[in-house]
Amino acid sequence: MSYSTADSLPRVTLDDVRGAQKMLTGISRVTAMEGSRHLTQLVGAPVHFKCENLQRTGSFKLRGAYVRIAGLLPEQRAAGVVAASAGNHAQGVALASSLLGVRSTVFMPKGAPLPKISATEEYGAEVRLHGTVVDETLAAAQEYAAETGAVFIHPFDHHDIIAGQGTVGLEILEQCPEVRTIVVGIGGGGLAAGIAVAVKSLRPDVRIIGVQAEGAAAYPPSLAAGMPVAVANPATMADGIRVGRPGDVPFEIIAELVDEVRTVSEYNLSSALLLCLERAKLVVEPAGASPVAALLREPRSFEGPVVAVLSGGNVDPLLLQRVLRHGMAAGGRYLQVRLRLTDRPGALATLLGVLSVVDANVLDVSHVRTDPRLGLTEVEVELHLETRGPAHCAEVGLALREAGYTVIESTTRS
User: Fold this and answer.
1) Is the pLDDT reported for residue 6 higher than 50?
2) Which of 87, 101, 235, 312 has the fewest other C-beta atoms within 10 Å?
3) pLDDT in tens, 319-340
4) Separation between Cα atoms, residue 169 and residue 46, nearest integer Å
């Protein structure tokens, strides 16, 4: 399935982005710019967050969706609009349509998180569940458009969508005029392309660095080939940038104006999400945290001041729980310890007392007496502990040894 648009559109210009900004006045929020002391220390230069996770509907997608739908002819509006999305684009289209009085239908995969389905319906769209992967959902939406005459609203591959997303770039220049580097996640490329048009037109000296998840990185091979290239079976926790093929319209812009595209691992993404939550007190979805992941991966390779675009905060609570657990494991925050005790009353309580002194939080205890490898007076205990990080893990191990325990196995775990 191709993600390209059939429309033949002119190049997106600064005037288009400025026109979109006027159109969005009173519709989208001028989201906050927040400093990060922790990342500033790591990078060695000021780092700021552009908080699109605090945008209406929880992501930047409202900007482009509103501009696209507002630009439709009266007869097109009368026919309604249709979109395909698992989350952010769905909510952006739903709210934009409601604000403009246009009927909207959104196709979502059957496995879409219930909070995202509910939010899309509450914003006014009719939700239809179809398929288990995005390609199937997209095909159903395009078939519906052909049958009903509804206008298909593409998530990234359209001139108006890119112009709307480019308003993020104008706000960055207004809020942080001294910026030297902008870091932004890339899926299909609409946001990065829009920011690039706005920023490079006014400040060609500003570096723009795109970020993709390693398991869904279609831009590096596409840029090498000079044309959009599809990646089979893109896989990443960052569903907001899990796109198998760059959009035709944003690809041309990104190839010309974006200085570099980097990739990050799942480890980097989960660590970034955890940092945003713990240090910045911001709920950010994995795709929205991808710029932070790039900063964590190679902190000294960015010229500051740096602005990292937190593109969205719509994370399913169940996924958030798993990702946080993954991020804590990646940061050495979980420790698994296996050791043997003398099987006597109070032995386990004494062990737990040692752990209490060093502030190790016990999550789980496994107590085995029947293993044939054990002596008649021995018991094996396996403990799953929550710690403050690698240094704390080492402190726990030292405390156990000093208390006379022989540790059979000690590993950080996921």
Assistant:
1) no
2) 101
3) 777 776 666 666 677 788 888 7
4) 18
Contacting residues for 408 by C-beta, under 8 A, at least 6 apart:
338, 339, 340, 380
What is the model's pTM?
0.82
The Cα–Cα gap between 87 and 215 comes to 20
CA-to-CA distance for 185 and 156, rounded, in angstroms? 13
Determine whether 311 is an active site residue: yes
Question: What amino acid is encoded at 364 in this protein?
Answer: D
Joined tokens for residue 95? 């709210």
Q: Which of 223, 237, 249 is nearest to 2 (CA)?
A: 249
Q: How many CB atoms lie within 10 A of CB 29?
A: 15
How many Å apart are CA 373 and CA 44, to the nearest integer? Answer: 54
Beta carbons within 8 Å of 248's beta carbon, 6+ residues apart: 4, 5, 157, 228
How long is the chain? 414
Q: Which of helix, strand or coil describes residue 254? A: helix
DSSP, residue by residue, 357-395: HTTPEEEEEEEE---TTS-TTEEEEEEEEE-SSHHHHHH
Distance (Å, whole) CA 52 – CA 60: 6
pLDDT grade for 1, boundaries at 50, 70 and 90: very low
Asked whether 315 and 285 are in contact (CB, 8 A), the reply is yes
Q: Please name the residues in contact with 53: beta carbons below 8 A apart, sequence gap of 6 or more.
A: 59, 282, 283, 284, 285, 288, 310, 311, 312, 313
Q: Which residues pair with 341 in a beta bridge?
A: 379
Q: Which of 245-249, 304-308, 315-319, 323-327: highest mean pLDDT? A: 304-308
Under the banding of pLDDT at 50, 70 and 90, the label for residue 410 is low
3-state secondary structure of 306: strand
pLDDT (mean) for 351-376? 77
CB 260 within 8 A of CB 217: no
CA atoms within 13 A on the CB side of 262: 22
Indicate the residue type of 263: T
Calculate the alpha carbon distances from 58 to 20, 53, 61, 120 in Å. Answer: 19, 5, 8, 12
Options 50, 61, 116, 200, the catalytic residue: 61
SS3 of 20-48: the string is HHHHCCCCCCCCCEEECHHHHHHHCCCEE
- Residue-wise pLDDT for 75-112, tens only, equals 999 999 999 987 899 999 999 999 999 999 999 988 77
